[in-house]
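Exam prep: given the inputs below (a chain plus 5-hydroxymethyl-3,4-dihydroxypiperidine), describe the expected output before reading on.
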Amino acid sequence: MLPGKELLIQEKMSSDFPRFPSGFAWGAATAAYQIEGAAQTDGRGESIWDRFCRTPGRVLDGDTGDVACDHYHRYRDDIALMQSLGLNAYRFSIAWPRILPQGRGAVNPAGLDFYDRLVDSLLAANSTPFVTLYHWDLPQALQDEGGWADRAIVDAFAHYANVVSRRLGDRVHHWITHNEPWCVSFLGHYTGEHAPGRRDLRETLQVAHNVLLSHGAAVPILRANARPEHSRKGGTRTRVGITCNLTPGVPASDSESDMAAARRWDGYFNRWFLDPLAGRGYPEDMLAYYGPAVPTIQPGDLDRIAVPLDFFGLNYYFRAVVSDDPAAPVPQAHQHRVEGADYTVMDWEIYPDGLCELLLRLSREYRFPAIYVTENGAAFADGADSEGVVHDARRVAFLQAHIAAVHQALAAGTPLAGYFVWSLLDNFEWAYGYAKRFGIVYVDYPTQRRIIKDSGRWYAALINAQRARPL
Ligand code: IFM
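Solution:
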């Protein structure tokens, strides 16, 4: 497949990019339920998403993750694809129900074996594995006992973290405990758009608290299970972090009430998670706002949550321009469309400056020692042309602008260590099923054929150009 003229121009643009540090991680991210498929294979247990997908009306077109991208069987080819793109890092998640089909108790050796093979294949391809322990596929058996709303889940998660890191801790040196606690709590338990589809504010806040507590419980376990051989060779020491999706709130006007709404939005989306992780406890204004819905917090909990992090993972997609809306549900803020702005097919505003602003805030206000952009990307209505080529110029422009914003933050002194595009492959986009394509690689689901999109080629050219110019 020869690149067209347009693509040559794009490749030229990627070689004009400013220089990133030599040890910078250039990666792509995925999640188990969104790509693996093989939902009933080799002893995997049921997850809350298997159940949710089978509940009528929950997922568009009744789509499920049963087959997804069939990555469970095609992971070697997918790694070869990443290698061809020049990625030096890959962020993926472990399916808890593959490891512990009932959530706790008997370990499924075939599940551990799969991730063992995946990690070995990545290392053989010179790709550094970044492993997320929880990207939303809770074993259904644990949900039946109360799920994240029940504090007992903290021990279950710690046990799961122990089982996985005992097996992989000799080769995996970058761990992410959770992906996007806001989604787990608010989409899963307040709006009900995600599994398990609950709608209760107090439960939501208790879930958020238990997720953060489980993070605090897992961090020392992941560190304890890091095998020393690697560091003796002078290699990477094990680093543990958490990934949050942050969405800046911008007031729609300079009225007092809109400014208060933007502050509430920030408390609800960002500070409710950032503050306790950074050792500040829950934000006072939000405790007052949530009133009787605040979670039960036991003595010592806030210290447990505030365990020092090696890095913070930022997932950034869009900002929210909001006005005060007392009739709306929490956080009583109405989201506006910005006139003249560009939107993805998720209806998310394309706003690259937001990424730079957030990175600066994370390093200046929260002082995290290192930051990775663990997800950033866009869904567009991609399709292959008559020659089987996917021209996704809008995604190329999106990546270009956002990676430029990352560089801007880096130049301003933020301790940025890597960037992961969401996503490697088109995949199962939760309640939207397969209707939204985020990949830099197109997946033709009926045949499972992969086609590198123009954005994938552009990203590869950028990475190559960076490698070609040592510091
Ligand atoms: O697909 C999701 C991913 O699972 C978590 N972060 C946002 C992505 C796009 O919606």
